[in-house]
Amino acid sequence: MPYSPVILIADAEDSSRDAASTALTRRFGADYEIEAVGSGAEGLDSIRHFIELGYDIATIAADIGLPDVDGVSFLASAHALAGQATRILMIAMDEYHTNIPLTQLHRIHRATALGQIDLALVKGWDTPEEWLYPQMQEVLTAWTLANRPQHLVYRVLGHQWDPHSHEIRDILTRNGIPFRFFSIDSEEGQRLALDHGVDGRQLPALIRHDGSVLHDPSSAQIAAAHGISIHALREKYDLAIVGAGPAGLAAAVIGASEGLQTVIIESQAIGGQAGTTSMVRNYLGFPRGIAGGELAHRAWEQAVLLGAEFVFTHEAVAVTSDGHSLNLTLTDDEQIRADAVILATGVTYRRLGIQGIDRLTGVGVFYGAAGVEAPALSGEPVAVIGGANSAGQAALHLAKFASEVTMVVRGHSLTTGMSRYLIDQIEATPKIRVMLCARIINGAGDARLNALEIEDTDSGRRRVLTVSAAFVLIGAEPHTDWLVDISRDNRGFVRTGSDVPAEYWPANRPPLPFETNLLGLFAVGDVRFGSIKRVASGVGEGSAAVASVHQYLRDRMKD
After folding, report:
1. Which of 231, 225, 248, 246 is nearest to 177 (CA)?
2. What is the rounded average pLDDT of the residues 116-134?
């Protein structure tokens, strides 16, 4: 039986150290070893001792001012020994409520920006139920999900570098469905295939927790087997939302909470591109940051509890008006009628358009974030192509596994398209190197990618970079070709409100905020012309657009 994970506290102040140790033992002592020490040196010795005995270190909390080393430096040294542990910096309660000294405040800000700490907590509290337990439970839950075996809904059996295998694992990951992948070439994979009668000619195969097997399934077949709704339950809705990214989910939450019969159509996974983001650090209300997938799943649960319905695996291919309601046509010719429709389809990652790269898509070349493939690339060199926030987040996530991460950036600086906090973290991560003024010329590899040819855009010199995988995040474009009669700019972004040209506008009144030139059809988030491409902006637009929906429905009743 494995040992209980360790929670270690390093604090020279006897009263606060003893209070924290006692409170943590009372609440978490049945499942965790609680170790309290008075200095950084003692803390590192304890960590080494526990690791030698076979313990996992779950959390390390350190006072900002230890007697022999500052708390941030101690956490950095501790992290080198126990890389999976959550790092907590403790601040005295009286300083938290009054003024933290400027030098300490700067240290905290820098440590947060560089990713040297995961969160800060106060010490010296009177009520652990308010100041300790909720935060620690959140930390320990996240650590357990990342480091302890979970109940598996599926065991996926297939070839590691098969594109369809990657696609299925990506769908399961983005939808938060627990699974584990087994290569068909491995001993364990062969045993699973034999035990469950898997047909090796129809891979990938999904072995459900009940023992049943799905051979080479489509997204719709996986959804149906998982009990997910793939058809609308009503003949007509007040509001239909196309796309379950941040903007669409926000519109669903607000619409359903305000009494609108709301349905959301999502072709792939909730969260959109934001759902693949390993950590969103600058979203309001989450001082410790939140994974994009977790934020999306919280919003999905909130929308469902408020009464919104979801229809998965279908894509909208047409929208028309009969003068009374809007009709959405889906990929299987299913029709959904609604009084109003909000487009929140977001954008898709732009392709490089290089034959030597695109032919290896799914077999070493991946468009989008690195959540699915990152663990399989442990100890391997990888490349991230792109220089915006999504590329920076992918590079930081990959650096936890890969031997080296090379960012290939066309621009002269990361500051053009990346947030400062990400740049600081990248510069502080030894495994990441940045190649500026660089562009991809070609890719090499037969069965899978093994190298990239890169050109320096200033000198014209070319070099070959050996990599096991490349993640392409070079911007995005809207998927709006199906909106044939809707006003869009030359890149396909949907015009709304005052941006709709007069010659397109069909009514005597001015357009409502977020309204397109098709009355009752609104657009929000990344798909909208002029939108700010941030999670918080999408959430704000999705929420605000519901007010325009209400106004539209009221005006229509008057007519």
Report:
1. 225
2. 88
